[in-house]
Give the backbone structure.
Amino acid sequence: MTRTSNTTVAIVLAVATAAGAAAAQAGSLDNLERERAVLVAALLDPEITSAERIELVTRARPRLVDLERMVLRDDSLVGRTTPQVRRAFENYDLTFLVHSGAERNLSEIDTWLDQLGINSEAALAAEIRRR
Amino acid sequence: MTTSQALPTRAPALTAWLRHSTAAAALLGASLAAAPAPAQDLVASAPPAAAEPGTHWRPQASERLVRLSPEYLKRRIDHDFAGSGLGQALRQNGERIAHKGNTLADLQAAIERADGELRIELRHQFLAEKRAYLQLMSDQIEMRRREAETRLSLYDDMLGALSRDKAAMTPDRQALVDKQMEARQRMASTLSTVDLQVFASPGVPESRYATKYAENMGAIEQLVNRMREHDMNRSVTADGEELTKEEFIRRMASKAQGDLALLDQEVTILGYMAKLIALDAMELSERATDPELSDAALSTDSGPAEAVNFFLRN
């Protein structure tokens, strides 16, 4: 489990770094993705304690709510067929974590992992083997 | 005889025909030479307005023009035309035509009251004034044609701009827009739930963005309602049916096309008028050169019975 979580964190950090590097403009969607990546990284960080994690999430959540609403209300994104915008609106639950979690009464991390297909059933069915 | 030639149907050609029709000019010239010189103020005609410099109208189908409301769009175009060189020339020429009409009416009344040499002279003047009237009317038609063609071109450009906006909405783009609208509605349905979960916790400050957003939305709604009720933003209707901007512009283009067709008909009318002037000029010329055709009391082949009245009174 430790190896899996380390791998997951590495993937998340790689995605966050790639997203940060690719951000040429500070648009509303860019800001949202940046904040979301920071939140997910914090949720998956094994180095921090639960109390610190809870505090981080509590501080980040209101900011994320505002950013999600800004993106959803941003008229400049309507009909803008860039890969980033298409991807963002392809999966509402993955992009707008806080709103989706509130709808389904799940935490942000549970929502995110569920969207990636990482849930209890998948973890229990996973096999440790050489590939 | 030029009167037997086919009459031109376009105003510029008709104008040239009026100016250069040799028979008509010669006949008028001959009949005028036979009579005393008419008063200058009755014969002088205005210079052709269509040839004046600056009689142009060049509107542009700008992005701003296309976005105007239908009712204001028409007023804006009409106002632009009225201030242009062509619009002013058209108005001035219309005033000259109105004055010329008064002159023709006065001359016609005078001819009915006159007799003998004076009547012939007045008929000459009448012919000259009718020729001048035709010239003015020909110029008027040509300017109205230019106005209608310019309007048609402008409306075509505006329709092109509107259809370019529409064509940009591809199926893929439309699918994305649908997803975005769906996402907005989904967010709207969870607003209160999220606020309760996130901002109701003690120690979590109220979102400044949320507060300001709500204030601004209130102001926007008031402004939008006011715009909807504004006189200049009334939607245009025709036969009880509300027209979109595209439909309104298409109707204006149809009207301009109709105006062009009617102008062709008016040129035909002018053509027949010109022909009649030429025939009248021929008749006047023959009466002036052949005393037998003048308004004589007795015809050349009259018998003594027709002169009885001369011998019954002393």
Q: What stands out?
A: Chain A touches chain B through 25 residues (CB under 8 Å).
